[in-house]
TrEMBL record:
This is Lytic transglycosylase domain-containing protein. Belongs to the transglycosylase Slt family. Belongs to the virb1 family. The keyword Protein biosynthesis does not apply. InterPro entries: Lysozyme-like_dom_sf, Transglycosylase_SLT_dom_1. It comes from Rhodopseudomonas palustris (strain ATCC BAA-98 / CGA009). It comes from the Bacteria. PROSITE patterns: PROKAR_LIPOPROTEIN (PS51257). Keywords: Signal.
Length: 264
């Protein structure tokens, strides 16, 4: 009899617990903390944290596309970077304190005028503007991604040869762009080289990138009249290329082959 009474009590207690959980509207579920890949994923009140990470094309595809267009970035590059940062989870918080879909640190968010890193409609455009600024500072998308991850100061020191680039950042750049940070650094062109339409150094790419790129056909220098070449150089100087593809096209038109980066 005592055993039967104990079983009845346990069943009643279990039913009460289930009922209480349901009446709370899944509060415990909303407060769940999932530790995966260094991210502590939390949820605000009233929002579920059980949703699977969004695919790179949803649900923020339109916001990403517009932010990329407004800042001259390839949408695929911005999509991959955000997916690498947070798997598109808008409420992600890292152990270091980086917040939201674009993983802004508090100091960086304040410096960039971002008042709510957890709002993707604010964070995604802010990330795109920041990346565009880093691209102008360092010369290409790969180094911009490195600076976004490790900080502009760390990347500048690495380029000067006074510090190492963290392994995490090297992997980050490779995953997003398909090329190593060293490849991007080797292809960094200074302002005078860009305005003249010639690369500062010969193109160097990793095997992974070479396998997924197309080569623009080189125009033999002897095949074009010198006057045409001078005119082409003048046009290249008048309009400074603003993207890797534009730089590549101007180099090819000047009689040099060029590898056009297609794997972002």
């Amino acid at each position: 009899m005592a055993a039967r009474a104990l079983l009845a009590w346990l069943a009643t207690a279990a039913l009460a617990a289930v009922t209480a959980g349901a009446s709370c509207g899944g509060v415990m579920a909303q407060q769940r903390i999932a530790d995966a890949g260094g991210l502590v994923v939390t949820a605000r009140a009233g929002e579920s944290s059980f949703d699977a990470p969004a695919a790179p094309t949803a649900p923020w595809a339109q916001v990403i596309a517009q932010a990329a267009q407004d800042n001259g970035l390839p949408p695929a590059f911005l999509t991959r970077l955000l997916n690498q940062e947070s798997t598109m989870f808008t409420l992600a918080v890292s152990r270091a304190g980086a917040m939201g879909i674009a993983q802004f640190m508090p100091g960086t968010a304040a410096a960039r005028g971002l008042d709510d890193p957890f709002d993707p409609f604010k964070a995604i455009p802010a990330a795109a503007r920041y990346l565009a600024d880093l691209r102008r500072q360092f010369g290409n998308l790969g180094l911009a991604a490195a600076a976004y991850n490790a900080g502009a100061g760390r990347v500048s020191s690495w380029l000067r040869g006074t510090s190492e680039l963290p392994a995490e950042t090297r992997d980050y750049v490779l995953r997003i762009t398909g090329s190593s940070a060293e490849d991007w650094a080797a292809n960094r062109a200074d302002a005078s080289a860009i305005s003249a339409g010639v690369p500062a150094r010969p193109p160097i790419v990793s095997p992974a990138v070479a396998a997924t790129t197309r080569v623009l056909p080189a125009v033999p220098a002897a095949a074009a009249p010198r006057a045409a070449n001078r005119a082409e150089r003048g046009r290249a100087s008048a309009k400074k290329p603003t993207a890797e593809a534009e730089l590549c096209a101007s180099v090819a038109a000047g009689g040099r082959g060029c590898i056009l980066q297609t794997a972002y």
